[in-house]
Amino acid sequence: MRSDAVLRKLPVIRIATSFCLLFMAGCIALTKDVDLAKAQCLAEGAAKRRVLEETLRGDLAAIAERLAKIEERLKLQKTAQENKMSLSFSTLDELKDTIRDLNSRIDAIDVGANKAAAELTPTVNRIVERSDALAMEVAALRAELEGQRPVENVTIDKGGAVRLPDDPEKSFTQLQKMSEDAAIAPQVREGWARYLRKFPGRHDCEAVFYVGETYSAEKAWNTAIEQYRRIDAEYKGCVKHEISYLRIAEALIALGKKDYAKKVVLGMRDIFPTTEYPKMTATIEKKLGLPPREKNKEKQDKKK
Q1: Which of 232, 281, 287 has its CA nearest to residue 259?
Q2: pLDDT (tens digit, 0 to 9) for every residue of the chain, 304 residues total?
Q3: Closest CA to 252 of 260, 244, 242
Q4: CB atoms < 10 A from the CB of 293, how many?
């Protein structure tokens, strides 16, 4: 009886065994498929990363090459200012387009959440930083080129930089008027420095004098005195020679050093027997309690 029962259950056991074997084979095949798919994903991610890195390296090399060309053009085309600006702006626009295209590519990259994305992120960050730096360089180059455009009048921009017109006499006249304004004294001094570089030998003595005027406007008397003294040391006999002495005397009076101011004014009587600034000289002499000049007095008596 027992053997009969076993014989009856034997087909069931065989079916169950076959099912188990099939199930195990299926699991093994599924595991292999999963491993194969994972390996393919990693390979594809690595391939995409390599392609992206090569593309980005190529773009960065192209940008570096364009920047080198821009710098070379800026050095070689100084005499053709307008043509250089036009060419540089065109090149800079192309460079900006390249940077925007590079940024769009970076934004469009779908690195996913796998291991390849984590490895690629530092590279992308470096590229973004480099792109930002290049954009800043482009902006600086554009600002520099804008600064080379000619202006009609002396101009002080928002950053405090001074630009001069190409007419030396117009620049001189406008800077001269601006030298008495204490609010813009530092910018005016920069303007005079630019003037001396741009138009050497035209009004060097007067430029030194008007720089002294900017310090007087700021009531920086000691610095003003040093500036006025440069005229006697470096430009003796120029048109501002006598008045530079008078300005020194006024600065000394403002500092409360009347004794030194008296020595300056008395010394002027030997250097400049006949003053070209009688009213100004008389006012200073009166403040110092000095008698009027004898020669000037004789000249005035003759006129009477």
Answers
A1: 287
A2: 545 554 565 665 666 676 666 666 666 766 676 677 677 777 777 777 787 778 878 877 877 787 777 767 666 655 555 555 555 556 666 766 766 766 666 555 554 545 555 666 676 677 667 767 766 766 656 555 555 577 889 988 888 888 999 999 999 999 999 999 999 999 999 999 999 999 999 899 999 999 999 999 999 999 999 999 999 999 999 999 999 999 999 999 999 999 999 999 999 999 999 999 999 999 999 999 999 887 544 444 444 3
A3: 260
A4: 22
